[in-house]
Amino acid sequence: IAMSANSDLSKTVRDKYMRLPQGDKVQVTYIWIDGTGEGLHCKTRTLESEPKGIEDVPEWNFFGSSVFWSDGSNSDMYLVPVCLFKDPFTLDRNKLVLCEVLRHNREPTETNLRSSCHQVMEQAGHSHPWFGMEQEYLLLGIDKHPFGWPKNGYPEPKGSYSCSVGTNKVYGRDIAECHYKACLYAGVKIAGINTEAMPSQWEFQVGPGEGIAMGDHLWMARFLLHRVCEDFGVVATLDPKPMTGNWYGAGCHTNFSTEAMRNQGGLQHIEEAIEKLSKRHSYHIRMYDPKGGADNSRRLTGSHETSSIHEFSAGINNRSASIRIPHQVGQDGCGYFEDRRPAANCDPYAVMEAITRTCVLNEAEPVPAGEVP
Ligand SMILES: *[C@@H]1O[C@H](CO)[C@@H](O)[C@H](O)[C@H]1NC(C)=O
Ligand SMILES: *[C@@H]1O[C@H](CO)[C@@H](O)[C@H](O)[C@H]1NC(C)=O
C-alpha cells in the first residue's frame, strides 16, 4: 500500500510537544474554499485570548495567486470568519474557523457561493428550510489506487460492501471512525457513518440543519476528513466517479424539507415542490457539481442506483429516480424528500440555494438556456 511519508512521522514525539502548555494564547486556523470551488486551504495564527464567538475572530487575508483565481489577478483577498469550531488536533481552546473569501473590493469571489446562498436563506427563513446531506467519498493511496485494493486487480465486485463488517469487506475503518470523533469534538453536526457500495468507499451524514449552517458544517466536515487522512497517510477523494467501469459513483444526496412539509399534510407540499423541480432539471444539474454538470455526467448514467442526467424523475423509495420520497414519508404523509442528483464534490451552498430558489421562492423562469453536458 502506497502511504505518504506523513504517516511515518512519530506520533509519539508529536504528542510530547502537543502536551506543552500554551498560556492564554490561542491558535486559530482559518479555512477557506479556493478558486476551484473544491479545494480547501488553511493557515494558523495566534490570538491573545480565546474567542468566545465568531465576532471575536478578526478578519485576515492571504495573497491570491492568479494560479488559483480565475480572474488572473494577483492580489490580496480577505478572509471573513463565518463559523467557529473547536480544534480536535491541537485541542480546545484552539479553534478552527471557516471563512468566506472576498476580493480586495470586498465583493465575493466567484467560488464564494456562500454569500448568495446566505441571502437566499434569509429570504426563505419563514419556511424554515432544513437540509441533511450524505457525503460519499473514496480512500486512495498516494499512488491514487483505492486504499487496500489488491495491487494488480480488483476486489470481489459482487461483495456486498454497503454497511459491512469484516476484514475482507472493510477498508480504512480507523479513518472513518477518527473522522467521526473529530467532527463530534469540533462541534460539527455529524449524524452518522457507514461503509458504501464499493470497497474503501465511505459515507458520513451531516444534519439536519436549518439554513446556511448545513453548508458550513459540511465544509468543516470535509476539512476534518482531509486533515485526519494526513495523519494516516491516505487521500480522500470526492470525485463523483472515481473508478470507471462497473463501480458505483459518489454522490451527496440531499434531504430537504420546509416546516409545511414536516407538519401533518406535508406530503402535498412535497409533491408541489417536486412538480416545481421537474420544470427546472437542467438548472439544478448545472448547480450540482463544480463543473456545471460535466462531473455528474460521468456519474448519473441511470445505473448503479442513479437517475439519468437527461431526465427528471421522482418516486417513492426509488433509488434510481432524481428525487426519492422515503418509504416512511409516504406512510406518514409528511416529512422530507431526498434529491439524489448532487455529486460528491458539489458545493453544498450551491445545492441548497438551488433547491430553495425553486421550492420556496418559486423561481421558475427564466431558466438560462444551457445544455446538460
Ligand atoms: C436522509 O434521509 C435518509 C432516508 O431517506 C436517511 O437514511 C439519512 O440518514 C438522512 N440523512 C441526513 C443527513 O439527514
Ligand atoms: C424508478 O425510477 C426510474 C427512473 O424514472 C424508472 O425507470 C424505474 O422504473 C422506477 N422504478 C420503480 C420500481 O418504479
What is this structure's SSE topology?
Blueprint: H1 11-18, E1 26-33, E2 40-47, E3 60-64, E4 75-86, E5 95-102, H2 114-123, E6 130-140, H3 173-186, E7 190-195, E8 201-210, H4 213-232, E9 235-237, E10 254-257, H5 259-262, H6 266-278, H7 281-287, H8 296-299, E11 314-316, E12 323-325, H9 327-332, E13 337-339, H10 348-359
Parallel strand pairs: 1-5, 11-12
Antiparallel strand pairs: 1-2, 3-4, 4-5, 6-8, 6-9, 6-10, 7-8, 10-13, 12-13
The protein binds 2-acetamido-2-deoxy-beta-D-glucopyranose (2 copies).
Structure in words:
With 373 residues, this protein is an alpha+beta fold. It folds into 2 domains: 24-111, Ubiquitin-like (UB roll) (Roll); 121-359, Glutamine synthetase/guanido kinase, catalytic domain (Creatine Kinase, Chain A, domain 2, 2-Layer Sandwich). The chain has 10 helices and 13 strands. It has helices at 11-18, 114-123, 173-186, 213-232, 259-262, 266-278, 281-287, 296-299, 327-332, 348-359; strands at residues 26-33, 40-47, 60-64, 75-86, 95-102, 130-140, 190-195, 201-210, 235-237, 254-257, 314-316, 323-325, 337-339. The strands form 2 sheets. Strands 6, 7, 8, 9, 10, 11, 12 and 13 form an 8-stranded mixed β-sheet that branches. It has a 5-stranded mixed β-sheet with strand order 2-1-5-4-3, with helices on one face. Strand 4 and strand 5 form a beta hairpin. The chain starts with 10 loop residues before the first helix and ends in a 14-residue tail after the last helix. The site of one 2-acetamido-2-deoxy-beta-D-glucopyranose has 6 residues, from loops. Belongs to the glutamine synthetase family. Keywords: ATP-binding, Cytoplasm, Ligase, Nucleotide-binding. GO terms for molecular function: ATP binding; glutamine synthetase activity. Residues 113-373 form the GS catalytic domain.
